[in-house]
Amino acid sequence: MKKSILIIIIITTIFAKLSFSQGRETFGEYEDSLALLGDIMRNGENERVKFEANEKFIELLEDALNKKKSFDYPFDSIKTIARLISPDKRFKLFNWVIAKLDGTFDYYAFIQLYNENKKKYDILKLTDKSNDIIAPELQILDANNWYGALYYKIIHTQNKDVDYYTLLGWNGNNGMSFKKLIEVLSFRAGNKPIFGASIFKRGKDKPKRIIFEYSAKAIMNLKYDNQEYQEKVRFKKPKNGKRFEMVSIKSSMILFDRLVPLSPSLEGQKQFYVPETNIYDAFIYENGKWDFIEDVDARNHSKPSSIDRSKREPEHNLYTPK
After folding, report:
1. Alpha carbon distance 51, 21 (integer Å)
2. pLDDT tens digit string along 220-268?
3. How far is CA 153 from the centre of its chain?
4. Pick from 166, 165, 170: which is nearest to 150 by CA?
5. Are 224 and 253 in contact (CB under 8 A)?
6. CB atoms < 10 A from the CB of 231, how many?
7. pLDDT confidence band for 205 (50 / 70 / 90)
8. What is the C-alpha separation between 294 and 175, in angstroms, rounded?
9. What distance in Å separates the CA atoms of residue 188 and residue 171, rounded to the nearest whole number?
10. What are the C-alpha distances in Å from 243 to residues 233, 239, 294?
11. What count of other Cβ atoms lies within 10 Å of the Cβ of residue 189?
């Protein structure tokens, strides 16, 4: 523990110097210090050390992102956080979690977004309130009331001059079950981030985001991929006695495993839900909405055994079990 605390003290001293510095060489120094703190956040001797490192990490990262030209710096040697850039290069997302001894996680994120009026980048800090949000699939949220997750994919769509950024993410929940999310991010006037939108079509439901919950022993796939599905095409006039035919269509989609309980008696107990073997559903973006479709022919899709903990692999080199 003494070693970790010493590193934090040294980095605090370096931070005092960096705060008054400019230039690309300064970003390298920031990056080195952030990488050291990130390692302590993951491997610290106890939670107190981890969270002390996290406090310094937040302070140092925010200061670095406020520097001119920081948007163009990759910060790619910091392996313990997710660094995502939107497909239209409008914003960057810096995102990480801290694993706790009770099997839960704390979630953190910054959005770096250009402000046309101020002619500078805004640094938007997200505050996780996932434990306090009732019926999270139905809520419109903001930076101060964020459903915390670790994101790994950004999908950009537009509808009626509004840019929507669909985020795929992971939430460690409680150690007994994990969650995966399809979140929607947009920005209102003044660069105010809004999480959630009425752009999902799933039966009679009108969710603002999609949340899947499943066993912590399972691996659930949730990805953006090009796959094939069947669509019913009706004829204006019957052909050979048929009024319609099924046509195979290839399209980009959000593809995911269908989740089922291990037995009918466990219905509703999400910690016992696992992917059903080789059955996939999806959301396809059409006419400004993510349309739900069932039984996608995911021939390009492969996955390990759904409940074999020993063979599971992380989706990225961060904290996520999967």
Report:
1. 26
2. 999 999 876 666 666 666 766 666 666 677 789 999 999 999 999 999 9
3. 6
4. 170
5. yes
6. 13
7. confident
8. 29
9. 26
10. 9, 7, 22
11. 6
67-122 pLDDT, tens per residue?
999 999 999 999 999 999 999 999 999 999 999 999 999 999 999 999 999 999 99
Is there a contact between 308 and 287 (Cβ–Cβ < 8 Å)? no
Kindly report the backbone phi and psi dihedral angles of residue 313, in degrees, each rounded to the nearest multiple of 5, phi listed first: -130, 150
Tokens for 49, please give them. 């050390």
Handedness of CA 7, 9, 14, 20 (dihedral sign): positive
Question: What tokens were used for 48?
Answer: 């107190």
Reduce the DSSP state of residue 185 to 3 states and report it: strand
- Residue with token string 């300064």: 26
The pLDDT of residue 8 is above 60 = no
Question: How many CA atoms are closer than 13 Å to the CA of 16, on its beta-carbon side?
Answer: 5
Sketch the domain layout of the chain as residue ranges. Answer: 1-80, 81-311
Helix (H) or strand (E) holding 12: helix 2-18
- Strands 200-201, 289-296: pairing kind: parallel
Interhelix angle 24-43/47-65, rounded to 10 degrees, is: 160
Check if the beta carbon of residue 283 is closer than 8 Å to that of residue 254.
Answer: yes
Residue 80 CA, chain-centre distance (Å), reads 15
